[in-house]
Design brief:
It is a single chain. This protein has about 150 residues and is of the alpha+beta class. The protein contains four helices and nine strands. Strands 1-8-9-2-7-5-4 form a seven-stranded antiparallel β-sheet. Strand 4 and strand 5 form a beta hairpin. The protein is globular, with a radius of gyration of 18 Å.
């Protein structure tokens, strides 16, 4: 069996910094024609995007897909609400946790899996300020350690 092609288009680094990731889920996106071409070109932006649940569907809000450069008058609107495709049971499970535990759902990554455009979303809890400071401190220490190792290897 041939391994499916996987190409990461964009990763939401801000979400990994601001939130503690509890549970992840892969889902599809409901897109129109020119949106698919723009996503394949990498003309996307997470910004302050988040996901809400309405009528047992996942809605992606604040996610920007730039208009396709070779599109016509039928080009898509860049900052519209988009529907995420997932199984009903998974949506219900996420909804229960959001309502009971005060968590939020954030998009993490958008990527090509084979020929399909997929998005990894996560159930997340906001980090406190001191957790963010610790993450910055740890990242800087790791960077310095790598730099020292590189200098020793010369």
């Amino acid at each position: 069996m041939e391994k499916e092609k996987f190409k990461l288009i964009l990763k939401n680094k801000k979400a990994y910094f601001n939130y503690e990731i509890i549970e992840e889920l892969e889902c599809g996106l409901q897109l129109v024609g020119t949106e698919v071409k723009s996503v394949r070109m990498g003309r996307v932006s997470f910004g302050d995007s988040y996901i809400t649940i309405k009528n047992n569907t996942l809605e992606l809000i604040g996610f920007t897909i730039q208009p396709y450069s070779h599109g016509s008058v039928f080009n898509h609107q860049g900052d519209r609400k988009r529907v995420l495709l997932a199984h009903k049971q998974e949506i219900k499970k996420f909804n229960r946790k959001v309502e009971s535990k005060g968590m939020t759902i954030v998009p993490l990554e958008i990527y090509l899996k084979g020929n399909l455009i997929k998005m990894k979303i996560a159930l997340a809890r906001g980090k406190a300020v001191y957790d963010k400071k610790n993450a910055i401190k740890e990242r800087d220490l790791n960077k310095e350690a790598r730099r020292e190792l590189k200098m020793l290897n010369y």
